Amino acid sequence: MRKKQRKLQLPEKLRWNHNEWYRRWLLRQLPSEVGSALDVGCGLGDLARSIRADEVTAIDASARMIERARATSEKVRWIHGDVLTHDLGRYDVVTAEASLHHLPLREGLTRLAGLTKPGGLLIVVGLYLTATRADHAMELVTLPANALVGIAKAINGTGGKPHDTEMPMVMTAPTLPEIRAAAAEIVPGARIRRHLFWRYSLVWRAPEVH
Question: Of 167, 158, 169, which Cα lies nearest the Cα of 69?
């Protein structure tokens, strides 16, 4: 994948966590009752700890992230491993928050779909590469909105924390057309939406087995 171009950076005090912004949206997509859930690329485990399910499993390729996440909760099953190769089961809900771009797109999406039980739900919130005219037009809204939110968060004392300093960063991402093309083949019927702040969402219900 191509290198993700740098977007205009706010001063440090005005930067903020875009993933946290969309986490509330992601959690609202979950069913009221969830038996088993898997969070892929869990990082420090903020999303995994927020998922209400009978059993929550979280996996990350970073040993340091899992070490720190494990210290925060014993209710989640924390796994250090590569989601593409680790022996995992299938889950009623699979989530991926800003983690799919750490994997080859088609291989990663295929794996996430395979981890989702029939009738289960796959929810992705990810980064996309600004590439099309529509993407650039969106930035006419995104850039000033990003600054306004940063100012508001700085005023109330919640700004200046775009990500943890130990969080592995990967400056690559697929384009939205690439994401839509892959989804059409791998998870047909998935709902894909462009969001503000350089994010997209993908929600897919795995077909029931008859």
Answer: 167
Q: What is the pLDDT of residue 2?
A: 46
Beta-sheet strands, E only, within 75-198: 76-80, 91-97, 116-127, 191-195
E strands present in the chain: 36-40, 55-60, 76-80, 91-97, 116-127, 191-195, 199-205
Torsion 62-68-71-72 (CA) sign: negative
Q: What is the structure's pLDDT at 169?
A: 62
Place of tokens 């912004």: 21
| Token pair of 111 as six digits | 């794996």
As a whole number, mean pLDDT of residues 42-57 equals: 96
pLDDT band at 163 (very low <50, low <70, confident <90, very high): low
Cβ proximity of 179 and 200 under 8 Å: yes
Phi, psi (deg, nearest 5) at residue 114? -70, -25
Confidence at residue 108, expressed as pLDDT on a 0 to 100 scale: 97
Q: How far apart are the first and last CA of the chain?
A: 38
Residue 65 has pLDDT above 50, yes or no: yes
Q: How many Å apart are CA 130 and CA 137, to the nearest integer?
A: 10
> How many residues are there in the chain?
210
Report the phi/psi class of residue 43: left, alpha or beta, with left for phi > 0 and alpha for psi in -120 to 50. left
For the chain, percent of residues with pLDDT exceeding 70: 82
Question: What distance separates the 2 farthest-apart alpha carbons in the chain?
Answer: 55
